[in-house]
Specification:
InterPro entries: Bact_Sigma-Reg, PPM-type-like_dom_sf, PPM-type_phosphatase-like_dom. This is Stage II sporulation protein E (SpoIIE). It comes from Nocardioides szechwanensis. There is one protein chain. The chain is elongated, with a radius of gyration of 31 Å. The longest helix is centred in the first third of the chain and has 24 residues. The protein is α+β, with helices and mostly antiparallel strands and 365 residues long. The chain has two domains: 112 residues, no CATH class; 221 residues, 4-Layer Sandwich (Phosphatase 2c, domain 1).
Length: 365
Amino acid sequence: MTATYDAAPPARTPRWRRSWRLFLRRGLSTESQIALVLAVVVIGITVAVAIWPTQMPFTALMLPLLVASVLLGPRTLPWFVIFLMVMLAVTLTQQVEVTARILSATLVQVAMGLVVLATSVRRTALGVAGLRGESMFIDLRDRILTQGGIPDLPPGWQVQSALKSAGGTPFAGDFVVAARRGDNLEVVVVDVSGKGAEAGTRALLLSGAFGGLLGAMPPTRFLPAANDYLLRQEWEEGFATAIHLSLDLNSGDYEIRTAGHPPAAHRTAGSGRWQVLRTEGPVLGLIPDATFTCAHGHLGKGDAVILYTDGMVEEPRRDIDLGIDRMLGQAESLLRGSFDGAATRLTEALGSPDDDRAMLVVHRP
């Protein structure tokens, strides 16, 4: 005989408790957690001012405001500022005596809150908080530098690049993109219109686009494809100059094409002299169906080729040919006997600190 028992129905969990458990299980977003912690800090400061009005400065509310302006996004930040201003009004009522100095401090804090609100409105277009937005730009800048990195080369080749931006800012309108396709090394040095940070955004976009074109297009098609890409952007200042080197790593034969860019220079080890490789081609982004002439050459043992931007050779009220002559003379002096750190040494010795400078040195030791 089997006994049966009527089990009592389980106690019904209150709805508020189920909601709370679901809230904890899903968790708060990082930004919500930060806002919650800052709100608790603000409430704590307000309570402390109410308890010790003569010992606790109510201007301490500006510390969480500063932290919020850095960490909170544009959607959360305005609400936090409004909440903090309400708490500021509460702390003002807790003061023993409202003097002119306290009123002045209050007005300063209200002004700081308005500045933070204005900043959050500007951030709305980007949609991210301060530190997160900065990290995005840093990542993009690092991608430019990564694309300018030289791929692994077979023994017997040395390729160096260096970049100096106007005023020492981390963003520049000059950049280098390199790619290797089998036994061919493809390198392009680009100078975007403008300089420094104002040209940095266009350089970020173009470096990615040119990097894709460089690895996908044959050498004869790269500059025309880059020109078509710039024309499609329809930028008001969307032009750029470029010089493209295609080098056969087996034979040492190379092709160079330029688009409104200063010419490359080839140093022959036997004579120790530099030869300027002049080619013709319009600036990228101005003329549709542009054509670009080609300079052919051969890098023998000890030879070198340098590619550079106009920041290395241009100065106000001076002909660019004089700047090229000065650069080649400096190169002969600095690189005599050793090409180690050649690109860096040349960019530090030449050009104006008020202009972006880029240099690429290809040497066959």
